[in-house]
Amino acid sequence: MAQAARKKTQGRGLLLQALALLIVVLILGLIIHNTVLNLEARGIASGFGFLSQPAGFDLAFHLLPYDETTTFGQLFIIALLNTLLVSAIGVVFASLLGLLVALARLSQNPLIRLLGTIYVETLRNIPLLLQLFFWYFAVLRNLPGPRESLEFFGVVYLNNRGLSIPFPMEPAAAFYIALALILGLIVGHYLRQAAVKKRVEAGRFPAWHLLPYAIPVIFPLLTLLLLGQRWQISWPELQGFNFSGGLQLIPEFVSLVAALSLYTAAFVAEIVRAGILSVQKGQMEASEALGLTRLDTMRLVILPQALRVILPPLTSQYLNLVKNSSLAAAIAFPDLVLVFSGTAINITGQAVEIMAMVMMVYLLLSLSISAAMNRYQSKTLHYLGQRS
């Protein structure tokens, strides 16, 4: 009797779910049908044929070759690279700065602890858009001109036209070197795990246990040898009214990276601090009793155990940083939102296709970051013998 009632309840549930799905499909079909009718009524072409048309406007910052004959399809890739570049640099800077601020907040020195507290409480309580305007309009736009540039070590120059830094003559060489460094870090990470596993099994490290630390250096050096003369550095030099040579980073780019990094670092610092405080105090005392230095205690004992608490909220901050990069439109940095869902829509009028492409990009970026961080978290916890 009870089994028959349960089957009846399950059947009713399946019927309701099927009806709900049918209603959703009908609503989506109605929306698409009305959209197509409206586009036809206004004489707006649909489809993705516009991607092969020339864009026909200038672009202030681009990593790939660009001119007015570049098609909208190529423009999409160029704008996407700008977004990815800003996001990647922001994630790296925010992570490093957040870790330093977290350690400052935990310092036994009252002055350092106070500075860390002021940083966090100030930056996380001011809107990101306001901070972006501050760096762009109040700081970089008020810097002196190229002839009176702020000089750093005689190789880096900052002025109201942006930041001039040394850079390989061929941009492709820089890409290959960066790729070799990333590959070296990944290979070194897995080799380090293999070395620790050998130590657990055999009671001592293998003879090659220092190799993981050398791999991130060896790979870029081998790449330099393979590139030959192509990796030669171009140095920025003042010629006339502006700098030539090197890489010229426009003020919009510098402002966006600074605002995103500094703002996100305040949240990362609190996440790291909470993770460190979650580790039992006895772990620190035991490490000190074993003779480990404070740095080794933090690197080998505290931070690995704190990752279980740090990684989930840290993933959310990385996702926020990538999505917040769309604020670049406020200061006219040519990212994906400004160039493709702004200028391109005004020229082609195909808002549906363009907005769908841009939204899909941000969705895929967020899902990719989330999947990568979840996999890293799973591997790390398995390596530490913990469970999430």
Q: Could you please describe the fold and organization of this structure?
A:
With 388 residues, the protein is an alpha+beta fold. Helices cover 68% and strands 6% of the residues. It has a four-stranded antiparallel beta sheet with strand order 1-2-3-8. The longest helix has 40 residues. The model has no long low-confidence stretch (mean pLDDT 86).
Report a brief summary of the structure.
With 388 residues, the chain is α+β, with helices and mostly antiparallel strands. The chain has helices at residues 2-41, 72-105, 110-123, 128-139, 171-202, 211-227, 251-278, 281-289, 294-324, 336-348, 351-384, and strands spanning 150-152, 156-159, 162-165, 167-168, 233-234, 237-239, 242-244, 247-249.
Question: How much is the average pLDDT?
Answer: 86
Series of secondary-structure elements, N-terminal to C-terminal:
HHHHEEEEHHEEEEHHHHH
Radius of gyration computed on alpha carbons? 26 Å
- Overall 3D shape: globular
Main β-sheet, spatial strand arrangement: 1-2-3-8
In whole angstroms, the N-to-C terminal distance is 41 Å
Name the descriptors.
11 helices; alpha+beta; 4-stranded antiparallel beta sheet; 388 residues; two-stranded antiparallel ribbon; single chain
